[in-house]
Predict the structure.
Amino acid sequence: MFNTREVYKLIMRALILVLLVVMASGCTLPGFPNVFGSDAVNVQQKVVENGVKDVIVVKDIQTIPTSPLLPSQQLLLSFIIENRDALKSSIVSVDLFDAPTMRDATGGSLCNLYTQDSIDYSCGEGQTCTRPESCNGIISGIRCSTDAGYYCCFLGLGHAPLESVGLCRPDQCGTEGCIILPGEEKPVTFVMRTPTESDITGIRTETKISFKTSYKFNTSLNYLVPAVNMDEVISRQRSGDKTDIAITKAHGSGPVQIDMELQGAPYIISGLDVSDPYATDYTHTNPESVLIFKIRNVGAGNLVNSEIQPGGMRIEFPQEFKLVETNGVVNEKFTCYGNNVCVNTRTVNGQELGAIPLYKDESRSSIRFAVKLQQPLLQPFQTYPVKATVNYWYELRNSKDVTINPFQNV
């Protein structure tokens, strides 16, 4: 007799194996019965994930000495920041934003006190003091000591935004930021003192030391969009065959991911009548197709301010595409240039409209572009690359529980 449980296990293993094979080789998109050409076109989609989502991680958080601690005792909070990306450097900034009752290394000021930044941040080696617009669109950065209107730029990235500075600062990677190379680990240490016995009125006190790690990163998407000749579709319908075309999405590393879909049919149609290849008045015009972009937070932390700042997203469309305007505007948030590059910097009457907010870790505002081919397609089908990049600040939050207890208080 068959063992029902064993048969069930064998069936499940076979199903998992089939799923793995399908995932490795790509998948065929479902048909679109109400779309022209869906009965004559097979669309294979392949998704490529490059690198890791959480490129910066904080690990090995510890205090020396370990908890429980004595009042008025020197305390070292240390941890490791690791860049897990294989190719990109990142600028990282650490801030101890909540350390109740803890004091600075001298035991004088409370760590939770902040002051306006008055540190001289002269540009270091390899940096330049320049206007923000020269920093590859990054509008936030550390002020140069020469002029508050200038910023330090390094590798095309700005430094951490500055508002105020905590009185308990790390030995490196503070508000001035530090560069962490691909695969590199950096140890970071805060030196502080536990509260005095009078601060805690002589009783055992349990508290949490919280810090945030902000880092600058950029994420890219390469999307290969297929376009199909209308006559190819008609020819295949007559023969009863199907044309195989492919869509490839290649996601770059990083905790913020860009996605793109063609609305409706997963391909662009070119309406060329090839009966006369020299004709100038074509029977059909190339219809519009709509490209929808989404931005998602797929990492373990949060996008700073839950938005992509104006100037932070750039989309490059192929020269073969014509960007279709509605009431003279391609997109409500983007300014598009003659080279088919669009950046979220649109302003109306001095008001910036380019910010892209995220709600529940996903963009909900319209990032929609209507496109059509500039010229009729002469080949059966062709594939065109669309490239998108976002620059952003990302934030991780961590904490360490500690107990302060006067000696002999048991």
